[in-house]
């Protein structure tokens, strides 16, 4: 039920702030509990506990610790969204209070529906000056409009907060619109034939499909596909699986690739707008944080391709992205609010600003048609601009691909793909990579 006018005007956001603090405190307790779960086993004498029993105990404790850390990440995310919701609702409430004060200063009486009418004092004045009636009527209508708009703003802030809180708990059984879809069995079968396993699905056409074993990987590469990718299209899922396996074939470290499917634009016309990447960026930020928490021993890289590169760049805005490296392949731009790599924040596993070698890279084939959109500024700053600050690995500079294959060449050219993966491994501290080449030297 939508909040009414008196409730909206009197709304206190103190409870949201208190709940946010409670969520964060609970997350901290869960992390401490996870640490306590795994701490005692190494101290136990191997003569007292050894062999399969010790291995089973270690795996069981590690699994429980990962689950607790994953839940801690979700609680932290929910706490942040409670804080943001409180600020959003508070600002909308102040707008409503201002509109109400304005109407009352004009001598209006406001009913529960937000309609402003001349109050008793104005009605008495109107009896003495009949010619003022039309002006008062216009003033009442203007005040009514302002009040109703402000009330709609409070309700919208309430609904947005509720939606974003629900989105902080992805993968809940029964909440996904994918698993009940008639095409979903075909999608999972196609993924399985390619060696993929569905890790989770979300309520907004999102799915994480893993190739390789995240539990044993030293390096998790999150692949964010672009325009035309569809979690309910078996052919699309098959194509992304082929790209994931190509990455695995050229990795030198123990690697797992997690394809982060989302509600991507279906065609180039839709991709030219800003309708798809805001929600997808928030979903990606959440998914990467959950993966990092579930696998604390693995380095995490995010590799965005095409429109997925815009999503990945936007995910690194604001609170930041829990990744050791961010690679933008064939990017049409970095999206709103990003003028350079300095506007993108990479975080370590604890959610703090990254102090390691983690950085932002960009690679685009000279013949890639998406460069036309990038140079036109359709999606903001071009990551390939020398001033953006996103170097590309030097060995990735293979001869330009034919125009019709250029946009897919990052996965099809073995030399280029190996250089891309090597740069990510270098940032993850897993292997040396060739020196970075500045855009100005290309």
The SS-based structural class is alpha/beta
* Distance separating the two termini: 59 Å
Annotated CATH architecture of the largest domain:
3-Layer(aba) Sandwich
Q: Count of DSSP helices?
A: 14
CATH superfamily of the largest domain: Alpha/Beta hydrolase fold, catalytic domain
Question: What layout of secondary structure does this protein have?
Answer:
Blueprint: H1 5-10, H2 14-38, H3 51-105, E1 108-110, E2 116-118, H4 120-128, H5 133-167, H6 184-193, E3 196-201, E4 207-211, E5 219-224, H7 234-250, E6 255-261, H8 268-271, H9 277-294, E7 299-305, H10 307-315, E8 321-322, E9 325-329, E10 346-347, E11 360-363, H11 370-376, E12 392-393, H12 403-406, H13 409-412, H14 414-427, E13 436-437
Helix pairs in contact: 2-3, 3-5, 3-9, 6-7, 9-10
